[in-house]
Amino acid sequence: MIFFVSCNGNTSEDLYLPENLPSDETIKETLSSDSSLAKLNAKAKLLEKSLATWKEEEKTLVSEKDINLYWQKEKKSTPKSILDTDLIDRQRDSIRIRIVWSRIFHKTGITLKQKQNQVANFNLFKQLNFESSPQFGSSDAKWIIVEWSDYLCNFCRESFPHTKNLLSKYKTQIMYIHKDFPLDGDSDESLLPLALGRCLWENDPKNFLGHMQLLYSNSKKIMRGDNLQVKEWDFLQDCQPKSLSLKYFSQVKSDMKEAMKFGVGSVPTFWVNGRWVVGALDSQSWERVLEDTASR
């Protein structure tokens, strides 16, 4: 979903920097528009490259100086007590991605959708492929939650117990869908925990929430190929890390490709009744999100 400019392009236009960066939510809502995606695809076709390639190439044009223009302002809104190294890296990476999208939209002539009604927001939900995705609840539930995560992600692991408690507390009021977004999509080893999750869902869906907790706890061992001693998986002969079917890896890669199409760039990312929420959530944060998205 990116526009890459050749060396012969207009430099002042190529390095466009808006006065204020759009939020992650605004970018994702814009990308959920069919008309916006059509424009991006048309532009990419003219450039003879894929949108994914366009995005990665555009990222290389964003300098640390560009990021600092916005970082100085945005870090003021973050309490100093939680400005750890991981958070700083995530925030600066978010700025980089938002600069990329700002330039892409600018060059493609797309107007950012700062506000969007619920019907338009739900267009994205209708476009997602949930055929083989882990999911609980009914589509007529009060809240629909889609989560993109990776079992190797520390922030995802921190959020999961709170998400699990939420699903238990509200039960039939929530439809929850898990989508894969690997931190490193280039090696089968890094995809292994998510691929194993697909197998566990297919073979033992009733106990999948428990399996998810075990996947988070054992993800690094799974990736390294260590011998696992997880009794809950002993009876699932098809779901052994060293002998997983290639179809599960394909499902993970398909999820990642789909997520990038809609602008997902980090995990955990949640889509709740049309609202995008990026980052780890605790119980209090979840309750606020549910309160804000209760009206559909």
From TrEMBL:
InterPro entries, A to Z: Thioredoxin-like_fold, Thioredoxin-like_sf
Gene3D superfamilies linked: Glutaredoxin
Domain Thioredoxin-like fold: 133-292
Pfam family, one: Thioredoxin_4
Protein name in UniProt: Oxidoreductase
Organism: Leptospira mtsangambouensis
